[in-house]
Specification:
CATH topology of the largest domain: Aminopeptidase
Number of domains: 2
Helix content: 40-55%
CATH architecture of the largest domain: 3-Layer(aba) Sandwich
Strand content: 5-15%
Largest sheet: 6 strands, mixed
Structural class: alpha+beta
Distance between the termini: 117 Å
Length: about 450
């Protein structure tokens, strides 16, 4: 009887599989559509390479987003990443087309509902993978512009620059990987109306890779009449040294930027190994690209003479307290020096503050969608001879600093420099107190300072 019932029980027909669903599943993860179609071997074949690639990606990203971006500045890594992106996209397209074909064959791909779905999914893969490859390619191109700058030409704004551009072969490099690294950050204040580019921002950043100690020392632009490494007296202001050296190759055979690097290192007491030149107009664009920076303004600013606005209006005001600054306002914050109680020293401190605020903003993972614009702005703003193979090391040091309070920040105004006697020709100037500067150098750099071993 039971046997008769089993024979008469109706057989449930398996619902037909949809080729569109199969294509979508393999779009989500290659191999899923093949599994849905009942083809286990093909499913494993399509899924395994993607699983291996994802595992490698997760291992790579475990070091942090900043580390991954820095890796992509290395040409070999960037090219490999681009090839993998394009290969993964082609594999995904092949998987979704194959999954639909398994269920309905070639004729089903010609039907509008299925064919349209396959085309739409293919377009999504193409667009997203081209975007990812373009980001990697932009990093590859940016690396060449930032780390291998051309011999001549403007940085970003089209303003005139010294004929040798911003290129300088390191005069001296750290003796070992554990040795202190000193980098000159120079902001080039230029415009189409200038006949020269003045280095109005001069900040030496010193990093001890072993201890993680970081110091930022700003040279005010009005430092003048200082003794150079060859014993000569430079009569002008320090912000004009690079241009003067570039114009007179007889007196300064090394050229503009190398001369500036050498003389700043001589004054500070430690050799400067590398430089990073930032065009201030490009700096404005970079801050806009990251969506602005947040600063805590220590005192109200009211500079009625500031005239750096793009629309031509005059004056700059900013209340005391925390502010989110866009690029143009941040540039005013960095440039303004004629408000009540303001001068080159307060401006230099604000410049240091802005650099640290930008560093904080650049490590924000929510900026990933803006990465192409940030890369473009940064590559047109910055030039450096810092070695690419040490970027990860410097990034690790930066991450080890828990807060900006861990960075020693100094501006070489009073008491390290003072005004000359009234009536001294040359306008407003600052004369360095070499004894005080020597003590500061030893305090900051210890036995690395040349002053520590100088004979009294």
């Amino acid at each position: 009887m039971a046997s008769d019932l089993n024979r008469t029980r109706p057989h449930r027909a398996r619902p037909p599989r949809s080729p569109a669903i199969a294509a979508f599943l393999s779009f989500v993860w290659p191999g899923l559509g093949q599994w849905y179609a009942g083809r286990r071997r093909e499913a494993v074949l399509f899924a395994a390479p993607i699983a291996a690639l994802l595992l490698l990606l997760l291992i790579w990203l475990a070091g942090g987003l900043e580390r991954a971006v820095v890796d992509l500045l290395l040409p070999a890594v960037a090219v490999t990443f681009i090839i993998l992106i394009l290969a993964e996209g082609a594999w995904r397209i092949a998987a979704l087309v194959h999954a639909a074909w398994l269920i309905g064959g070639r004729p089903v791909l010609r039907r509008p509902p299925v064919g349209g779905a396959v085309v739409a999914l293919t377009l999504v893969v193409v667009v997203t993978h081209i975007w990812a490859a373009s980001v990697a390619w932009s990093l590859y191109e940016a690396s060449g512009r930032v780390f291998d700058p051309p011999v001549a030409g403007p940085i970003a704004s089209g303003a005139p620059t010294p004929s040798d551009g911003f290129q300088a072969t390191p005069q001296v490099t750290p003796e070992t990987a554990q040795s202190r690294i000193n980098i000159l950050l120079t902001g080039i204040d230029s415009s189409e109306l200038r006949t020269q580019a003045l280095t109005d921002t001069l900040i030496v950043v010193s990093v001890d890779p072993m201890t993680g100690d970081v110091a930022m020392v700003s040279f005010p632009r009005d430092i003048a009449r200082f003794t150079m490494s060859d014993g000569r007296l430079f009569p002008g202001k320090i912000n004009s040294l690079m241009t003067e050296a570039d114009k007179d190759p007889v007196k300064y055979p090394d050229g503009g930027l190398p001369t500036l690097i050498r003389e700043l290192g001589y004054l500070l007491g430690v050799p400067i190994h590398y430089y990073a030149a930032v065009d201030l107009d490009g700096f404005r664009k970079l801050i806009d690209a990251v969506g602005g920076v947040t600063v805590d303004n220590p005192k109200a600013i009211n500079d009625p003479t500031y005239g750096g606005w793009l629309d031509g209006h005059i004056g700059f005001r900013l209340s005391k307290g925390v502010h989110r600054l866009d690029g143009e306002t941040a540039l005013a914050y960095a440039r303004s020096r004629r408000g009540a109680g303001d001068n080159d020293f307060t401006r230099a401190r604000r410049q240091q503050q802005l650099l640290l605020a930008l560093r904080t903003r650049l490590t924000d993972p929510t900026l990933l969608p803006q990465l192409p614009a940030i890369i473009e702005a940064g590559s047109n703003t910055l030039r450096t001879n810092f070695p690419r193979d040490r970027l990860q090391e410097m990034l690790a040091v930066g991450r080890a600093i828990e807060s900006d309070d861990g960075i020693r920040r100094v501006v070489l105004g009073p008491p390290y420099a003072k005004n000359p006697p009234p009536g001294t020709p040359g306008g407003y100037q600052l004369i360095i107190d070499m004894d005080r500067l020597a003590k500061l150098s030893i305090e900051l750099f210890g036995t690395d300072s040349r002053y520590a071993t100088a004979t009294p």
